[in-house]
Write a structure and sequence with these properties.
By secondary structure, the chain is an alpha/beta fold. It is built from 16 helices and 22 strands. Helix 9 packs across helix 14. The radius of gyration is 21 Å and the shape is globular.
Length: 493
């Protein structure tokens, strides 16, 4: 068999790609799903709409490639990570909409869980701060707020999973997850790589709900339906999958993915590095039979989502690519800063009381300046993360490897290099999330011989060198830091 499949279930869409032996995409199909906003700060998805889109894109990509599922050596899965689904074990029906990683409804709950110890209560065991971002408190919220769910969960009638588990259940009938997704729940011991009974009890999630944790490169069951008989042989959270697709297998190598949010990961090797500067310690990947590899991560909540906001909420642009052309029509942002703290700030600030601001407005400012400021906000947030990462790791990042949808924006990538002062490099295949899932599955079943073969498939497409002077860089970043300060403390208890 000459092909692999990769299912990439993201925050705004689901896609399936067919990958050849040369590591390139043979075909791809993609479909968006609804973003549901019941209240301010709440974000939901319909889990059954996601499974419907999954079946559609698999069938469409196979048809475009002129093959059937039986021609696939294996399939890998990657997914939006902390988004939380609870379903009936017997019927497979979700008992509520999925609570998305961006959702902030658990704000009060996470403060209560922190108590006198605050956000760092579970950091030693999990590598994570207590924050609305993670899935454990989302499950607790559902069990507390929806009548009858806690009783059913404790009786073993309900299953919890992040989106990978939801998809694996519907594709194979198994209740499984991998170490990377499990490491984002606040329920897994980061070193033991297993659920921690004390964490589950403290957060209020019955162990009976939890999936079995497996290595990222390994077995996750055999497909049914459109993937009948196909092995699911790889599973990685989306940012870890992007790291895998960028072949960041050596300690000290970093990548940044520009999607709905923005996520920078630095490989720290087989030992977890505790952060003192607002980053997350997480599992990068694990190959079956080998120790886990860890990473430091900086998570930015709003990157591409800000461009989507310009399009859908504000009506300033008709499509995402239009943002680049409009921003290029002016020389700079005219002193305007846009801080997209729509649901608080993630790394390195972790302030759920923050809300978005636009600062520096004058009568000179026009739409193009604001659009440019929106694009620049992603680059500034990335610098916040990179500086924290260098302090935590002691590693000076000399090159930033980038991927994701926004890397097609040349203006943004040049500004990113300018505000960081380091080169920014884009690979020939920027969709590294799906690629990484395919690589993991291929490695698991022997489709690829090993890491050296995967490294040989990576190739540079374009490099942006810094062109901004040091004084201008410092002044621009100082303005950004002042703007961030204006967002803090906006929401009061």
């Amino acid at each position: 068999m000459e092909y692999l499949g990769a299912l990439d279930q993201g925050t705004t869409s689901t896609r399936f790609v067919v990958i050849g032996r040369d590591g390139r995409f043979v075909s791809m199909a993609q479909r968006e799903h609804r973003q549901i906003f019941p209240r301010p700060g709440w974000v939901e998805h319909d889990p059954h709409e996601i499974t419907e889109r999954t079946g559609q894109v698999i069938a469409e990509a196979l048809d475009e490639a002129g093959i059937t599922g039986s021609d696939l050596a294996a399939v890998g899965i990657t997914n939006q990570r902390e988004t939380t689904v609870v379903w009936d074990r017997e019927t497979g029906e979700a008992v509520a909409n999925a609570i998305v990683w961006q959702d902030t409804r658990t704000d009060r709950l996470v403060r209560e869980l922190g108590g006198l110890l605050g956000p760092d209560r579970f950091r030693t065991e999990t590598g994570l701060p207590l924050a609305t971002y993670f899935s454990g408190p989302k499950v607790r919220w559902l069990l507390d707020e929806e009548p009858g769910l806690r009783r059913r969960a404790e009786a073993g009638e309900l299953a919890f999973g992040t989106v990978d588990s939801w998809l694996i259940h519907h594709l194979t009938g198994e209740h499984l997850t991998d170490v990377t997704n499990a490491s984002r729940t606040l329920l897994m011991d980061l070193r033991a790589l297993d659920w921690d009974p004390e964490l589950c009890d403290s957060i209020g999630v019955p162990e009976a709900m939890l999936p079995e944790i497996r290595p990222s490169v390994g077995s996750f069951g055999v497909g049914r339906g459109v993937l009948d008989g196909v092995r699911v042989a790889g599973c990685l959270g989306d940012q870890q999958a992007a790291m895998f697709g960028q072949t960041c297998f050596e300690a000290g190598r970093a990548k940044n993915t520009y999607g709905t949010g923005c996520f920078m990961l630095l490989n720290t090797g087989p030992v977890p590095v505790e952060s003192e500067h607002g980053l997350l310690t997480t599992v990068a990947y694990q190959v079956k039979g080998s120790p886990a590899v860890y990473a430091l991560e900086g998570s930015v909540a709003v990157a591409g989502a800000a461009v989507q906001w310009l399009r859908d909420n504000m009506g300033m642009i008709d499509s995402a690519p239009e943002s680049e052309a409009l921003a290029m029509s002016v020389d700079d942002s005219a002193g305007v800063y846009f801080v997209p703290a729509f649901s608080g700030l993630f790394a390195p600030h972790w302030r759920s009381d923050a809300r978005g601001v636009i600062t520096g407005l004058t009568g000179y400012v026009e739409k193009a300046h604001l659009v440019r400021a929106v694009l620049e906000s992603t680059a500034y947030q990335t610098r916040d993360v990179l500086e924290a990462m260098e302090k935590d790791s002691g590693v000076e990042i000399e090159t930033l490897f980038v991927d994701g949808g926004m890397v097609a924006n040349d203006l943004l990538m040049q500004f990113q290099a300018d505000i960081l002062g380091v080169p920014v490099v884009r690979p020939t295949i920027p969709e590294t999330t799906a690629l990484g899932a395919g690589y993991a599955a291929g490695l698991s079943v022997g489709f690829f011989e090993g890491f050296d073969e995967l490294r040989s498939l990576w190739a540079e497409d374009r490099r942006w060198e810094p062109s901004m002077g040091a004084a201008d860089r410092a002044a621009a970043y100082a303005g950004w830091q002042k703007a961030v300060e204006r967002t803090l403390g906006w929401v009061e208890e």
